[in-house]
Specification:
Layout (H helix, E strand, L loop, with lengths): L1 H32 L1 H36 L3 E7 L2 E6 L2 E6 L7 E6 L7 H28 L4 H22 L3 E2 L2 E2 L1 H10 L1 H18 L23 H13 L6 H13 L6 H18 L10 H9 L4 H14 L3 H15 L5 H20 L2
Antiparallel strand pairs: 1-2, 1-4, 2-3, 5-6
Helix pairs in contact: 1-2, 1-4, 2-3, 2-4, 3-4, 3-5, 5-6, 6-7, 7-8, 8-9, 9-11, 11-12, 11-13
Length: 370
């Protein structure tokens, strides 16, 4: 069944690419045939695509926000690309944070009353509901309004891209190593344990926005019932959070053991978390002198670390590799400068301090071995 869904998804993806690419190609040919005026139209076309896609991302995340508020959730953060609006100390602050595989994200605080299945589903599917409404609106306006080139192109592309986002987010799949909205809604509606794990992760995120470290949060937020289905991505994600919490204990050997256990398990850990766990394992092995890291530093991990180069734990691992594996002090100083550059804009300052402490530990070890 999953294989059939993936095939359908790819067919839809390629069909959408052909439609957009064909329209783009015709615009380019038209630009060549019409000279300077045609070239101007061509650049108008590119502008229309750019605006259409970015507005669709905003519409999608706004859907999560509106349906979340409607069903009792409270605002926590709203991100478009790397620009994040986050509520901290009762005020809205602008921060910078980018997560690979996502164009945006709307994270909310669960309602104080018991969540219903409907509220969880509506919050997760709010984005694609808004995409559907927006597509219908754009198609209607394109037929009603006068045919002005850039406006007509913008409306047509907005409708097409909105349908594209509806399909890529609505068909249950893991996209870019992260469960999409359809997958979340499917899993959470069928599995009470998964819904509980999802709620706990939202509570953990909300506490982080207020400056709490993982070790300062209630133990029950990180626990799963005996026999929990670890093939569910939300249960597996909570187990990843619990392993990351061990960093606060200062026991890098315990972190290493827990991380290796997760990576060697058959838990359904999404690609993003698996790569971050691998970065943690590289750090622990270098700090603990407990094993080789060459087998972990694959081309795939290098690609991931490049894409997540401004993520604190990735920078910490890069820094530790530079010092403890390559003895490259100059490289480590550049990495540290990069870290300090992103530090004041990062939304979770307690994470900045935690990772800074881990880098200091790597530096102390390096100095002790000289």
């Amino acid at each position: 069944m999953k294989k059939a869904i993936k095939i359908v998804f790819k067919v839809l993806l390629y069909t959408m690419a052909i439609i957009v690419g064909g329209y783009y190609g015709l615009a380019f040919i038209g630009a060549l045939m019409n000279g300077i005026e045609g070239v101007a139209y061509f650049f108008d076309f590119l502008l229309a695509i750019f605006l259409a896609y970015n507005i669709n991302v905003i519409v999608h995340e706004s859907g999560h926000l509106v349906f979340g508020l409607f069903t009792g959730y409270r605002f926590c953060s709203f991100r478009i690309w790397s620009f994040m609006l986050i509520k901290q100390d009762g005020k809205l602050n602008l921060r910078r944070f980018k997560l690979m595989g996502t164009g945006g994200q709307c994270l909310m605080i669960p309602p104080e009353h018991e969540e219903t299945k409907a509220s969880v589903i509506l919050y997760n599917l709010g984005g694609i509901i808004f995409n559907l409404i927006f597509a219908i609106l754009c198609f209607a306006l394109n037929n009603i309004l006068p045919k002005v080139y850039i406006l007509s192109t913008f409306l047509w592309m907005s409708a097409v891209l909105s349908i594209f986002m509806l399909l890529t987010n609505g068909i249950p799949l893991n996209v870019g190593g992260i469960a999409n909205d359809g997958m979340n809604a499917l899993q959470l509606s069928k599995n009470h344990e998964a819904a509980s794990s999802f709620k706990k992760q939202l509570l953990i995120n909300a506490a982080q926005t207020e400056g709490l470290r993982l070790s300062e949060m209630p133990d029950e937020w990180f626990t799963l019932p005996d026999g929990a289905d670890m093939h569910n991505t939300h249960n597996a994600a909570l187990a990843v959070c619990a392993a990351g919490r061990l960093f606060d204990s200062g026991d890098s050997k315990a972190v290493e053991e827990a991380t290796e256990a997760l990576l060697n398990s058959d838990y359904n850990i999404v690609g993003l978390h698996r790569s971050l766990l691998t970065c943690d394992l590289v750090y622990c092995r270098l700090i603990n002198d407990s094993g080789e890291v060459e087998g972990l530093l694959t081309p795939e991990l290098a690609k991931f670390m490049s894409a997540m180069k401004n993520y604190p734990s990735v920078i910490r691992t890069e820094y530790t590799i530079a010092l403890l594996k390559n003895s490259d002090v100059a490289r480590s100083e550049k990495i540290l400068a990069q870290y300090e550059k992103i530090a004041h804009k990062f939304p979770y300052q307690q994470e900045i301090e935690s990772e800074r402490a881990l880098m200091s530990k790597a530096l102390e070890k390096f100095k002790s071995e000289q």
